[in-house]
UniProtKB/TrEMBL annotation:
Function of the protein: Catalyzes the ATP-dependent phosphorylation of N-acetyl-L-glutamate.
Record's catalysed reaction(s): N-acetyl-L-glutamate + ATP = N-acetyl-L-glutamyl 5-phosphate + ADP
Species of the source: Enterococcus termitis
Underlying gene: argB
Positions of the record's site feature: Transition state stabilizer: K8, K215
Protein name stated in the entry: Acetylglutamate kinase
Presence of the UniProt keyword Lyase in the record: no
Amino acid sequence: MKKVIVIKMGGVASDNLTKSFFSQIEQWQKAGKKVVIVHGGGHYISEMMQRLNVPVKIQDGLRITTEETLKITQMVLIGQVQPMITTYFQQEGFSVVGLNASCGQIITGSFLNKEIFGAVGEVEQVDTELLEHLVERNHIPIIAPLGLTQTGDWLNINADQVACKVAEELQAEKLYLLTDVPGVKKEDQWLKELAINEINELKKKNIIKGGMLPKIESAVSAIQGGVKEVHITNQLQNTGTTIHETGVYA
């Protein structure tokens, strides 16, 4: 499905949902593009955990997910964030379908490292048949980054990884990883382009670190899996840092 554009929404989701955001979605649809959304919810999950006096622990950019943290994550993603996003889209006249792991087991995964990260998972398979069915009918799937193991255990999966796997499985032409910064920064300059063979050097120099690590690693996986280009940006209208198979610093 080469006409697919996958968008991962992160940060404070409502900040992304501007008039210009929806205008871009509308332009893409008019041009025959199919849109798929994957949403995160880290800000809202952390906020809820703090309210409930549950400690927030992050390692290598991933949230350590105890049984209690998993329940909070499910509650926030499925009960708060996804309904908020779908409502915004519906108010703008778009046809959307909210999806999570319990919807036909749309995302199947496995534990990343249960001893270290708890219920954090990684994606093994995406039900592309369901997604293709929806986008062909001009619905916009809005996917929560939760998965199920083959034995029915729930998994908290990094939303960037989910978006990249969805883009890879659908052979999307573009993937936008929306975040709270306009791209990847090097020496006080936002990079316009970044080749995947340049990334290891930036990691060694600690230029790419923290929450940007899983984002970049997922982007590389998507490019290697056939996605033409990945954009790390804070707005759909800005290309931000474009990650290609090959490229140059700019």
